[in-house]
Write a structure and sequence with these properties.
Layout: E1 6-19, E2 22-35, E3 39-43, H1 50-58, E4 65-74, E5 77-78, H2 84-94, E6 95-98, H3 102-105, H4 112-125, H5 134-147, H6 153-157, H7 166-179, E7 184-188, H8 196-211, E8 216-221, H9 224-230, E9 233-238, E10 241-247, H10 248-253, H11 258-265, H12 304-308, E11 314-317, E12 320-322, H13 325-328
Parallel strand pairs: 3-8, 3-9, 6-7, 7-8
Antiparallel strand pairs: 1-2, 1-4, 4-5, 9-10, 10-12, 11-12
């Protein structure tokens, strides 16, 4: 049996933000791993901490963000303890991120060409052991733009971000990250601002790179359909905690946490019969989160134990686990 190799391990990660002198406890005990050549999904409602998780993995939290505890291991090295130069190398050659907002990811006063060259020169001139000429780098950039369905790549390269639409800027960011050929891709809603046909092409491209073994992916989205299409394993996140995880097909076909079931019930039915259900209530106040399970105030099955104690991770099978007292007791 082939031994599993994890390119990324997140262990018991907790993150807080301080806003107006009030500390908000956003992530609490987040734990998951990414095997080499595999894709892992993180899915949940808006505001549940998905983007914060990716920013922590890249160690680019805003100034008011603090990693309270935990470890983030990339190829066995804790990035939270890396010296500045090693951390910079990790971002340039190891992990790359597709940001949800392309406007904040691109410098508005620098041409797409120069931003591409800056991104590629580290990955291809230093990592590969040989220096590519400027012309060769630009050729690689043009081919990368074509893979994300951007016609006339030379015109795109000579443009500035403000001259492109939101969807085109998003595809430029995706092309730039993919062309750098990093080992780990952090994708924060990569389909944002894209029409469904282009989004499908991008997701198919990411999936093909994963299946070829060239790439490992952490995909963040609130779309269950995207997660099912692209990922091999999934983590269901609620209010900064992962409540269920495992092999994607198994989790979706046999959800064990009430929140996972509620998310699936929110999906519209293809038959048109019935109205998709919403989830009553709202996510808790992060400045004063529930003492026990964070989903307890909205859970129809919550007991006194759920309100006062935090549920531990309970293994259901080899590729499926849940953090829920009711599921653990077989209810």
């Amino acid at each position: 049996m082939e031994e599993k190799t994890n390119v990324l391990e997140v262990r018991d990660l907790s993150v807080s933000y301080t806003v107006a002198n009030v500390k908000t406890h956003v992530l609490e005990g987040v734990t998951f791993s990414v095997e080499k050549g595999k894709s892992v999904g993180i899915v949940g409602e808006s505001g549940c901490g998905k983007t914060t998780t990716l920013r922590a993995i890249l160690n680019v939290l805003p100034s008011n963000g603090t990693i309270e505890s935990g470890e983030i291991l990339y190829d066995g090295k804790n990035i939270l303890q890396m010296p500045k130069d090693e951390l910079q190398e990790y971002r340039q050659k190891g992990a790359g991120m597709i940001f949800q907002d392309p406007s904040s990811a691109l410098n508005p006063v620098i041409s797409i060409k120069n931003q591409f060259l800056e991104a590629l020169k580290y990955a291809h001139n230093e990592q590969k052991g040989k220096r590519l000429t400027k012309a060769e780098l630009l050729e690689k950039a043009a081919k990368s733009l074509e893979t994300v369905s951007l016609a006339d790549p030379n015109r795109i390269l000579n443009s500035y971000p403000f001259q492109l639409s939101g969807g085109m800027r998003q595809r430029v960011c995706i092309a730039m990250t993919m062309a750098a050929e990093r080992q780990l891709l952090l994708a924060d809603e990569p389909g944002t601002a894209l029409d469904v046909t282009i989004q499908d092409q991008i997701l198919r491209l990411i999936k093909s790179l994963v299946e070829s073994g060239e790439l490992s992916v952490v995909m963040v989205t609130h779309s269950l359909g995207v997660i099912r299409q692209v990922t091999t394993t999934v983590n269901i996140m609620y209010a900064g905690t992962i409540v269920e995880g495992g092999e994607t097909k198994q989790v979706f076909e046999s959800p064990r946490h009430p929140y996972t079931q509620a998310l699936i019930d929110c999906l519209p039915k293809l038959t048109g019969s019935g109205i998709a259900k919403g989830i009553p209530g709202r996510i808790p106040d992060y400045s004063n989160p529930p003492k026990g399970c964070r989903f307890a105030p909205r859970c129809p099955y919550a007991a006194e134990k759920c309100i006062s104690e935090k549920p531990a991770r309970h293994e259901i099978g080899a590729e499926h686990w849940v953090a829920c007292f009711q599921a653990e007791e077989g209810r």
